[in-house]
Amino acid sequence: MKILIDSVIVGLVLLGAAFTLIGSWGLVRLPSTMERLHGPTKATTLGLGALLLASVVYFQARLGVWTAHELLISLFLFITAPISANMIAKVHLHRVHTGAINEPDSIAGPPPKPGGEGDWATFESPRRGTPASTANT
């Protein structure tokens, strides 16, 4: 039984370390800000979740103690990472849109142009006659 628990802990630590390494590598190596967001928000978050789960299993198996610290850290991480990534993306798109920064060419392509088809809601103000506009009243 001890070998099985140790194997689970080692597997979770290796999985977490691999995801964290891949996410960190993506943060450093990808060319544009929008592409760099995927590293820490996706892979690194999963890696830290696996490492925290390994900690929970370790303390339960070794000491017989359930700890909520790791679960609270995971909850905080899984709630804040997508929100912060969304805010960073909106600020980045706004800065590119206004010409405050110049991004290198990337696989993702340029952000959409204002007023065109598929414009981002970040830059569109409500106009009369649009279905979602509250200015119609």
Question: Can you describe what's shown?
Answer:
- The structure is a single chain.
- By secondary structure, the chain is mainly alpha-helical.
- The chain has 4 helices and no strands.
- Helix 1 (2-29) runs antiparallel to helix 3 (38-63).
- It is elongated and about 65 Å long.
- The chain starts with a helix and ends in a 39-residue tail after the last helix.
- The mean pLDDT is 79.
Write the layout of secondary structure elements.
Elements: H1 2-29, H2 33-36, H3 38-63, H4 69-98
Helix pairs in contact: 1-3, 3-4
Indicate the proportion of strand residues.
under 5%
What's the number of helices? 4
- Helix-strand category: mainly alpha
What is the straight-line distance between the termini?
68 Å
Mean pLDDT reading: 79
The outline comes out as elongated
Largest sheet: none
User: Low-confidence segments, ≥5 residues, pLDDT <50?
Assistant: none
Helix content: 55-70%
Order of helices and strands: HHHH
Total DSSP E strands: 0
Rg is 21 Å
